[in-house]
Write the structure tokens for this entry.
Amino acid sequence: MEALLIASTAVQAVGAISKGNAAKAAAGYNAALMDQEAAAERQQASAREEQGRRQAAQVLGTQRAAFAQSGGGMGGSAADVMRQSAINAELDALTMRYEGELRARGLESQAAAERFSGKQAQRAGYFEAAGTILGGAAKYSDARETRRLRQSKIREIY
């Protein structure tokens, strides 16, 4: 009976540790995926930014050609329009970069939270195992004491 109690306690303790370690491993895997997504998001944001700049350059070129064709020259209000268009295009490009960075940082924050959750699950597994071992030790001690008392009473009777 005592051997079964010890074996049961050991199996439960090992199971608790295994469960905590598995949760930590799963969280680590999820966090790594989120880190990869963050890197991909930065690359995509950079590509969107560059594409936006190329499109803006084409629009600015078309504007210059239109102003030149109209014979108005590149001074005065035409220069103001061109300057404002260039400023707007740069703001759009920087906004694309900023939005991508925000999404990437959000993913990195989620990855950090996932890693923390995994560490906590692992720690909980260790505490659960310790509780199981202590509980098993208490049951074992109670069983030994009960057996000792039973043997003592048997001796008193005989």
DSSP finds two helices and no strands in the chain.
